[in-house]
Amino acid sequence: MKKFILASASERRKSLLEQIGIPFTAIESNLDEQAEIENENSPYEWVKAIASKKGHAVLSSGNVEPDTVIISADTIVTYMGKILHRPKTKEEARAMLSSISGKKHTVYTGLTLIFVGKDGQIENEENFVDATDVSMHKLTDDEIESYISTDEPYDKAGGYGIQGKGALLIDSICGDYYTVVGLPLSILYRCLRKNGINTLDFWK
């Protein structure tokens, strides 16, 4: 079986790979996303490009052995066509949550798989973008203040985490829950299968 690298330090993405039984090594890409914001494109193109750049950053690190699959992903929240990046302050988190309170927004996750052959060269690269619509409850001021007083908003696009306390903010979703968490597992699984990986080994 090929080796697998997750190009991320994200605990939630690590947990999702563990959930479906993929053995992997995590290597952080160290991509400076803030520098990339200056060249921000449409949400679709942005998240697709960042996911790919993360994978290639790890590939270029010199830490990738032959016969390896690099898995990289990026997730963004958008409202009215605008990307809501990770808030840095309570003020930014408060404004962000207030803007999507009681409204529907869209979460995009870009997924890249880079297949490295036995000769250490790229055999194939697959790129995907998946979108899920999320409807948030109308939040009270107290709810927003309580939530932004936790640690959750500040390392997450849109200022909330659906897999944590942020689940209490959500009314409904239309699409893949795992896309919102940050790694569309079904797309990942079927891409590996299409590229000749014996995915049934993950079930053992």
Provide an overview of this structure.
The chain is of the alpha/beta class. Helix content is 32%, strand content 26%. It has 7 helices and 7 strands. Strands 1, 2, 3, 4, 5, 6 and 7 form a 7-stranded mixed sheet that branches. Strand 1, helix 1 and strand 2 form a beta-alpha-beta unit. The longest helix has 17 residues. It is elongated. The model has no long low-confidence stretch (mean pLDDT 93).
State the low-pLDDT regions, or none: none
The Cα radius of gyration reads 17 Å
> What does the average pLDDT come to?
93
Count of β-strands: 7
User: Tell me about the biggest sheet?
Assistant: 7 strands, mixed
The rough form would be described as elongated
Helices and strands, in order, run as EHEHHEEHEEHEHH
Structural class comes to alpha/beta
Number of helices: 7
- Considering DSSP H and I runs of 4 or more, what fraction of the residues is helical? 25-40%
In percent, how much strand structure appears in the residues? 25-35%
Distance between the termini: 14 Å
GO biological process, one term: nucleotide metabolic process
Family: Belongs to the Maf family. YhdE subfamily.
Main location: cytoplasm
InterPro entries: ITPase-like_fam, Maf-like
